[in-house]
Write a structure and sequence with these properties.
12 helices, globular, alpha/beta, 412 residues, six-stranded mixed sheet
Length: 412
């Protein structure tokens, strides 16, 4: 069975949000999920603190912990002594309590991750290519999912909750910019449906940049921002939008699609439409510059991008990309009144730091009167963001509270 991802964070100085449960009868499963969410957000907690955080009674929490313990979802840590009364026993998520697979089908690579119940990556594999031909990609996915199941072993493979697939909405889009002629089209391929059939696991599809945004929202800096624009610099630059701690997809799934934003106004009589952000600030542009000078284009993703042979071309790219991103952020801040902007990408952390610095400098060239200049933050997840975001979706679906209907968020 395949599904589409549902619409799924105050300034960084404020503490994280906390879930609050209910003691009403008939929502036992919801309260179990609230307890799991409290432990996921705050780490190992004793029973009394869980009760305070969730506003559930001590008796209710005790019963819930017993059920979750019996289900293999929790571990009890060593008692904490040295305080008045009985020693408290912190309770933590059992990493082996559940697993999920995240798959990113990118324009340049296939990434497959196995993620445990705490969100840690336990297994990772990558396949690089010039273009994602459907038959080849689907065959690789089938082999890699089968290998993950084998490595998990009989006892743990039944704890696989599902697969989350991240991919561009239009995998065939901008093929001319990639310099390829696709042998096959993705236009009529139900990617999630095909993977669900071959794996037998529930499979969820989400746009790749939205998946990266999910990873940052759940496991990164997005936990302390309520409304933010997320920018991910990959082969093509893209983004996601979080408003009131919820990922917003928009009517057509394109909310936060910063890569399509025009870089200038359209004037009468001009020969063509204005160029888009993706033609200026994508890693594809940097790859092309490396190739034009007989340098390995794969250096865009590692430390070589700032080494002597590659550095001059990287600096040229930064000089174009940073002001372009700053323009898009300025326009977004005027429209959305953002708490912050998070920039991440599939490159080294040193290059991310440089890009953030240059975007920050470019902010000075804009007039912020009438709006607020948002804080600019580097992403905390990195190149795994898209596949990790996909992997988090089945875990969220099976173990997190339904935020829209029940979850009440309060400051700690």
């Amino acid at each position: 069975m395949s599904t589409e991802v549902p619409d799924a964070g105050s300034p960084a100085a404020r503490p994280p949000l906390r879930p609050r449960g209910s003691n009403q009868m008939g929502i036992a499963q919801f309260n179990e999920r609230v307890v799991l969410q409290a432990i996921r957000l705050h780490g190992a907690l004793p029973q009394a603190q869980i009760a305070r955080l969730t506003h559930l009674t001590a008796q209710t929490v005790s019963l819930i912990l017993a059920r979750l313990d019996a289900a293999g979802l929790l571990v009890r840590l060593a008692p904490v002594r040295g305080k008045v009364g009985q020693p408290s026993v912190p309770v933590a998520l059992d990493p082996d309590g559940a697993f999920s697979i995240g798959i990113n089908v990118g324009r340049r690579s296939l990434d497959v991750l196995l993620v445990d119940f705490t969100g840690e990556v336990r297994d990772r594999s990558t396949l690089n290519y010039r273009y994602p031909n459907p038959d080849e990609v689907l065959g690789e996915i089938e082999q890699r999912v089968r290998a993950i199941r084998k490595r998990l072993g009989f006892a743990k493979r039944d704890r696989l909750q599902g697969i989350g697939i991240a991919a561009p909405l239009l995998l065939d889009g901008w093929a001319s910019l990639l310099g390829v002629r696709p042998r096959q089209s993705w236009a009529h391929i139900d990617l999630a449906g095909r993977v669900a059939t071959m794996s037998g696991l529930p499979t969820t599809f989400v746009k790749d940049t939205a998946a990266a945004c999910v990873a940052e929202l759940v496991a990164g800096r997005g936990r302390t921002l309520k409304t933010f624009l997320y920018v991910f610099v990959g082969t093509f630059i893209g983004g996601g939008l979080v408003i009131d701690s919820q990922l917003r997809n928009g009517l057509h799934g394109n909310a936060g699609a910063v890569g399509s934003q025009a870089m200038r106004r359209s004037d009468p009589g001009q020969s063509g439409p204005p160029e888009q952000l993706l033609s200026v600030a994508s890693l594809l542009t940097l790859e092309a510059a490396y190739e034009a000078h007989d340098l390995d284009p794969a250096a865009v993703g590692d430390e070589r991008s700032l080494q002597p042979h590659w550095r001059p071309h990287t600096e040229t790219w930064l000089a174009q990309a940073a002001p372009a991103i700053a323009l898009v952020v300025h326009n977004a801040a005027c429209l959305l009144d953002l708490d912050g902007v998070i920039i991440d990408g599939s490159f080294s952390r040193d290059l991310l730091g440089l890009l953030n610095d240059r975007v920050q400098e470019s902010f000075d060239q804009y007039n912020w009167e009438g709006t607020q200049r948002p804080q600019l933050l580097p992403g905390a997840v990195g190149p795994d963001a898209r596949a990790l975001g996909g992997a988090l979706l089945p875990l969220h679906a099976n173990f997190a509270p339904d935020r829209e209907l029940f979850l009440k968020l309060e400051r700690v």
